[in-house]
Amino acid sequence: MNRLRLYLEILAITASRFVLHDAWAIASHIALSVLTSMFPFLILMTALAGLFGTGSLADEAADIILEAWPKEVAGPIAGEVHHILTGRRSDVLTIGLVLALYFASSGVESLRVGLNRAYGVRETRAWWLTRLESIAFVIGGALVMLALAFLVVLGPFVWRGILYWVPALARFGNIIDFLRLAVATVVIVAGLLIAHKLVPAGRRSFRSVLPGVGVTLLLWLLGGVGFGWYLDSFPGAYASTYGGLATAMVALIFLYTLGAIFLFGGELNGTIILAKRRRLNTEPKPPLTDVIAMP
């Protein structure tokens, strides 16, 4: 009972810190930044894939990114994504690449703002240094996505080779779909861990960020199912309100929901870390509820 009461108290403090840190407003900033940086990021992947002579990998990587989205949200966006990635672009290795890097890194910067507040830390590095770090994250993420896309593309060939030698495994034909879902899950978990550990100022252990990552994954799953159910049950709701902008607004509201959940996970980690510091402090400790007032 005492442990349950402690958990409820931590959740209540987390919710209060979430509101006090203007997380709703920052979530809208994250949603807009991610939406505007998505296409530059995919264009960057196209340029990098072209350098290795495997331009189709960028298209596959885009499918992996959208794999975890509800089909009602990902469907309309996927068509535009494939249209852009299959178009021939002559500027992606010149000034276009620089602009794509800059705009794609803005998504990382929006996460940094929210996580710095959630963990109660202040960024002391120069703006250009954090921007370079964000660009490094973008380039690294693009290369990782291309590598994972290569594995997904290679999977069917390997599977056919296995079936040639072991035909009895043919009844497990859905293993490729499972592989795609597993890759998308790995990308999400790894991205959350890296974001919480490396993006905000200061350093935290992987263990200290696991509670927020776990809660984020659970709420993202529930939120995705709920959002998909709403769009499936009321398909004309957004079209009647936003008209031709319905597709963009659905994606923006979906990303806004994900951004708010992501920040809640950060606030949960920040609350737990501060509570542990209070407990380890030898000085007289104020009630845990005082953590609410901390930055």
TrEMBL record:
GO terms for cellular component: plasma membrane. It is a multi-pass membrane protein. Keywords: Cell membrane, Membrane, Transmembrane, Transmembrane helix. The keyword Amino-acid biosynthesis does not apply. The keyword tRNA-binding does not apply. NCBIfam families: yihY_not_rbn (TIGR00765). This is Membrane protein. It comes from Microvirga subterranea.
